[in-house]
Amino acid sequence: MVLLAALKNSLKIIKKDIRNVRIVVNGLGSAGTACCQIMLAAGARNILGCNRKGVVLHVNEDNSDQVRRDFFPFIQNDNQIMTLREALNGLMFLLVYRLGIF
């Protein structure tokens, strides 16, 4: 809940809607996936989730409702969608749930 409050307050300051920003979550363990689910429930529509291989979860406008209902089938552990570096291009919010990534 603290994450969501911080995110909403940040968005209020910069006058952006949670549905219109890209969020990258680095670390899809229990904390990272729980935070993704909280943000989806709050209306986030563009989330990239990363593990050590790169981006393995891409939530967008087309699949956000499905992902919100059943999150884990959308994580592609065997397929890297893009690298973390590519995901950070033009980024507004980065959430890190993994040590030693930089």
Looking at this protein, list some descriptive labels.
single chain, 102 residues, alpha/beta, Rossmann fold, four-stranded mixed β-sheet, 35% helix
Terminal residue distance: 26 Å
- Quickly give the CATH architecture: 3-Layer(aba) Sandwich
Count of DSSP H/I helices: 4
Question: How many β strands by DSSP?
Answer: 4
Low-confidence stretches: none
Going by CATH, what is the homologous superfamily?
NAD(P)-binding Rossmann-like Domain
Written as H for each helix and E for each strand, in order along the chain, the element string is HEHEEHHE
Structure description:
With 102 residues, the protein is α/β, with parallel strands linked by helices. It contains 4 helices and 4 strands; from the N terminus they run αβαββααβ. The protein has a 4-stranded mixed beta sheet with strand order 3-2-1-4. Helix 2 (30-41) links the parallel strand 1 and strand 2 (47-51).
Quick recap of the structure?
This protein is an alpha/beta fold and 102 residues long.
Write the layout of secondary structure elements.
Blueprint: H1 2-14, E1 23-26, H2 30-41, E2 47-51, E3 54-59, H3 64-69, H4 84-88, E4 93-96
Parallel strand pairs: 1-2, 1-4
Antiparallel strand pairs: 2-3
